[in-house]
Amino acid sequence: MDLDISDKSLPVFAALDSKVRVRIIQLLSKQQMNVSEISKAIHLSSAITIMHLNKLEAAHIIKTQKKGNQRLSSLQIDTINVSFPQQLYIPYESWDIELPIGQFTNFDVHPSCGLAGQTGFIGKVDNPSYFMDPKRYEAGMLWFSKGFVEYQVPNYLQPNQELEMIELSMELSSEFPFSNNRWPSDITVSLDGKEIGTWTSPGDFSDIRGRYTPKWVYNDMNQYGMLKSFRLSKHGSYIDGQHSADTLITDLDPTKNAWTLKIAVKPDAKHVGGCTIFGNKFGNHDQGIKGKFYFSDVDDH
């Protein structure tokens, strides 16, 4: 489950704010249980136990099903990720871009792989040839087991300006046929051949539906990823604020019209678990690949 600091996440935070409900989660992590078994284990009446179960179910932490006259409960998730707002004061001017995830200009992908749009799959799944389908620009989700996709990032820098920092954000996860919440994958992001860093995705998530994922997407398919921030500065490269590489922004050629952004799962990575990229109207964040480019006037130095 992927959360942010917003009102939408309050039911989950409220559900976890109870020693009793934490105990119930611990019990259900070992096995599926009915109300009577849980009630006995936590030493509370069935009525109060059901109240706690209802709160956990409303927060999508557990799920219940009827079996005869029994109500069976089981855990629906195994991980909760909380993204905090990233505040960073930058005393520079900037420009912004947002690339649709289907606007890649080069690729080398291996099955399982595919593209998906608002109404269904784009072309045939597990056939890399369809990554050149003209409708790829409509994709809101793409995935591959290993390989890469590349995008051209425009450079609007003027001759009298100097690049100070670049921030990129994108929603990513691993790739497993259908899904696997525990499937680590090393996803490497680079700009013009210079690595910003490698992030290890913990899984390919389908424990709950993505906020924006279209209804046609099956419940056991990729539902959402994690929003990751990649920063390139004069001091090094960072992923979510943590140092990830020694690549400097001065390593980029400022005279180019565009830089190549590469998102890859290397064949020799420790965890070759694929990559899923979520775009507009998919996953938990309604966005493509966003970039913010900070610059200063040379005269100011």
UniProtKB/TrEMBL annotation:
Keywords: DNA-binding, Transcription, Transcription regulation. SMART domains: HTH_ARSR (SM00418). This is Transcriptional regulator. The keyword Transcription regulation applies. The lineage of its organism: Bacteria, Bacillati, Bacillota, Bacilli, Lactobacillales. Residues 1-95 form the HTH arsR-type domain. PANTHER family: TRANSCRIPTIONAL REGULATOR, ARSR FAMILY, TRANSCRIPTIONAL REPRESSOR SDPR.
